[in-house]
Amino acid sequence: MEGPFFDLDIQSDQSSGKNSIKELINMAQRLKWDAIAISDFVLNKEDLIRIKSEIRKIDSNIDVFLGAKIKAENVKDLEKRVKNLREYADIIIVHGGELEINRRACEMPEVDILAHPELNRKDSGLDHVMARLAHTNHVAIEINFENILSTHRRMRSQVLAKYNRNILLCQKMGASIICCSGAESIYDMRSPREYISFLQTQGMSIDRAIETISKVPESIIRRAYEVRSESFIRPGLKRVDSGESQ
Amino acid sequence: MKLNPIPPTMRERKRYIIFDVISEKPKKIHEVNIAIWNSILGFLGESEASRARIWLISSIFNEKKQRAAVKVSHDHVENVRAAISLVREINGERVTLAVIGLAGTMLGAQKKYFDPEDY
């Protein structure tokens, strides 16, 4: 099976999680992930710098990226915090659920992932316009495994129905779908193969299922590094050395 | 009177899903069995579960390594694997059931994943 596999939404005890970064990394190694991102809820760049120094202290065989999960109160708050944190985080994840926040996140090219747009909603939190915007601005729509794990019976079937709708919309509009654990403890983490099996049971082809945990997160990471490189000027425009051909 | 054994060509094809139970305290096989069946019945339903022909092999459960195998029909592997991954707790304690491999025969599963010295 083609890798490498990424899980970009894991919370440590630095915010809402229950386990330390080291424990999460050890579990990820055991479950055969190639890279993970510690994406804690952060308020400012100082939080990110602190988490980054914690990550640097740990010696691991897998790549560990720094993510920032933003739970904004309103659209203005979201814009402000994305602008402040973009420079310091590898990945920007927006905590979805509110329709205005979902819409604004899809409109912002600085955002990488819109997490659980359906959270605490009766509808799926996404329409065809938002899906098209997400495609245009390279915002991936997340399928959060934690929401499935933490629900049962009727509630789980409703969550699955919303995910199925979002998958359909994203496939139709060309938006990327990313599957993340959303883990808050080591017991919320599963191996990459389990996510693929789960997505297959939801009607996704095996190739698309693999993409959601390999190609899509990989492209997010690559784009983040590209944007932060010195040669980057603006989307579609970068500085090229005289000897380098484009 | 005994039933005649079914000819090999008419037998159903099966696979063995091998998984580790990751938890703070070791679990008993019957606890794992209940958790898996609850998850499978909840996620797949009775009809699909009957077609999957699920059977947890208690005889090879490795209590030391917390490793178990479940027999399943070959065309329901993905469904059962997904259902196993949805087990969240056993007896109120958080667990992760991590699938470590798939085998075509019991002998193959035992050779590759179960060490006789652990029993």
Describe the overall structure.
- The complex is a heterodimer of chains A (246) and B (119).
- By secondary structure, chain A is α/β, with parallel strands linked by helices.
- Chain A has one domain: TIM Barrel (Alpha-Beta Barrel), CATH 3.20.20.140.
- Chain A has ten helices and nine strands.
- Chain A has helices spanning 21-30, 45-57, 75-85, 99-107, 128-136, 145-149, 153-173, 192-201, 206-213, 215-228, and strands at 6-10, 35-41, 63-70, 91-95, 113-115, 140-144, 177-180, 232-234, 237-238.
- A seven-stranded parallel β-sheet of chain A has the order 1-2-3-4-5-6-7. In chain A, strands 8-9 form a two-stranded antiparallel sheet.
- In chain A, β5, α5 and β6 form a beta-alpha-beta unit.
- Chain A starts with 5 loop residues before the first strand and ends in an 8-residue tail after the last strand.
- The mean pLDDT of chain A is 92.
- Chain B is an alpha+beta fold and 119 residues long.
- Chain B has one domain (12-106): 2-Layer Sandwich (Alpha-Beta Plaits).
- Chain B is built from three helices and five strands, in the order βαββαββα.
- A five-stranded antiparallel β-sheet of chain B has the order 2-3-1-5-4.
- The longest helix of chain B has 24 residues, at 29-52.
- In chain B, 34% of the residues are buried.
- The mean pLDDT of chain B is 94.
- Classes of the chains: A alpha/beta (246), B alpha+beta (119).
- The A-B interface holds A 30-31, 148-150, 152-153, 156, 185-191, 193-195, 197-198, 200-201 and B 22-23, 42-43, 77-79, 81-82, 84-86, 88, 94-96, 98-99.
